[in-house]
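Encode chain A's predicted structure.
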Amino acid sequence: MIRQVGGTPLLDTVAGPGDLKRLSREQLPALTQELRDEIVRVCSQGGLHLASSLGAVDVITALHYVLDSPRDRILFDVGHQAYAHKILTGRRNEMPTLKKEGGLSGFTKVSESEHDAITVGHASTSLANALGMALARDALGKDFRVAAVIGDGSLTGGMALAALNTIGDMGRKMLIVLNDNEMSISENVGAINKFMRGLQVQKWFQEGEGAGKKAVEAVSKPLADFMSRAKNSTRHFFDPASVNPFAAMGVRYVGPVDGHNVQELVWLMERLVDLDGPTILHVVTRKGKGLSYAEADPIYWHGPAKFDPATGEYVPSSAYSWSAAFGDAVTEWAAQDPRTFVVTPAMREGSGLVEFSRVHPHRYLDVGIAEEVAVTAAAGMALQGLRPVVAIYSTFLQRAYDQVLHDVAIENLGVTFCIDRAGIVGADGSTHNGVFDLSYLRSIPGVRIGLPKDAAELRGMLKYAQTHPGPFAIRYPRGNTARVPAGTWPDLEWGRWERLREGGDVVILAGGKALDYALKAAEDLPGVGVVNARFVKPLDTAMLRELAQARALITVEDNTVVGGFGSAVLEALSGMNLRPTVRVLGIPDEFQDHATVESVHARAGIDAQAIRTVLAELGIDVPIEV
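Encoded structure for chain A:
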């Protein structure tokens, strides 16, 4: 089926929120269709958040029609659904630069636009930010309005629920738009999701209760309180679904309503945004709205590859990703080890676990966007004799640091952390770069850390971790690796490095992605050795003592230079009272903006060209160009 796309005559008149307000309400449905057409056109180049952005168009249009941005603050949880927001706030011409070096961020970013209220990329943060802004507004005597858009997937995060509890307690004026599409990236899970599916609201009850209570209070306050209690009892008897957690937390609840009826949304928001206290407007939306193939498969179209917007046709990738390599390995291992149980925080597809969840459904747990719960649930499993594997992105494991330390490491529990997207991730930028895990995990006693150079080593490390006591971390990058045959389970001794290239003048120590750069940099250079430093904790101190006899050592890592692999090498050499020349290459102590992985690595000084430059500085006769 060919998708017909018209022009954008209304959108062409909108250069900012002020222009939007000059449109009539009757024109808004046509405008939202034009916005969707524009988003599809931009996202057809691949690598962008399509389905979630299409689903939020009507909500975003209504918010900007009613509120006065940037004076009023509009916050987006995660921010990946905010493409319509970017277009309506003067960035339409820059949309083709999304997630490209020097271009727009894929999320909202304070330094990018005055209309972006928060810098975000992780889930469940919007409500706490909104609470802080409302408190600041009232403390400073200002009168701007605060609205936060949060998905039901983000609501599975404990931070969102804790913030909601405090919001209800403080009672400050704000509008919370609960964008309910039953999805985060994968389908949403858990009791909250089930509750949302059955939630209904009696509109006549809501609309009449405020006026009725005021009338009775004018006669008798005790009578009004008695009638309020009687009303709640009656309501709970006839409508059990009205006993909802939002009301229990002290937050006014309205909905659910059609999240794709932009005119109704405008009508509701105009009446809700200035009510005293916090209000939740529950809107039901559909990921991929307006694009038939995205509506049919919102998981794939969450972040699709390049496609034909007219037909939805795309070329499937034949590459074998690190995520797939892990998924194949853990699925195969679990078939022979009934103690293996996989836990993930809402990243089934991203972490390569679709097949595992199908083959081993009773040994698979998706906790939703709740990284802390994933780690501590794994700790509980380990205490009862299972060998849980926590499949998690590096950037999201940051959120569960205390659980790794407190719940897993103190008792040396057998939990294996398989850490995807370790290192620079490229287009998603500073909020998603996984360049801190070596540093923060090194600081926890008992956690052993490995960096496989390929899928075979990944399998060997997984086998070792699952058959030895204590916590292990296996980190691997975003990108592809070579496929290995099923049944490949090499024997590795944890903590033993591998010499890949002999050379005693200068030796390059690197693991994981950085090892590829090291090997390329050392090509055809006699005297330059390369070591696969595949274990960061513990280090191979016996080999390191031998390597210290070289004139110089270079450590290379796809991790911050602060407290990472290079720091570990320097600490070990100091402990052995050895003083070779050491150059530490890694990600500088500053946040890295979005660009290709290769571009960021070059900018950070860890690619092959940068290593050859350092080799030249150390006196190696080397042509700089590689």
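The chain is about 40% helix and 15% strand.
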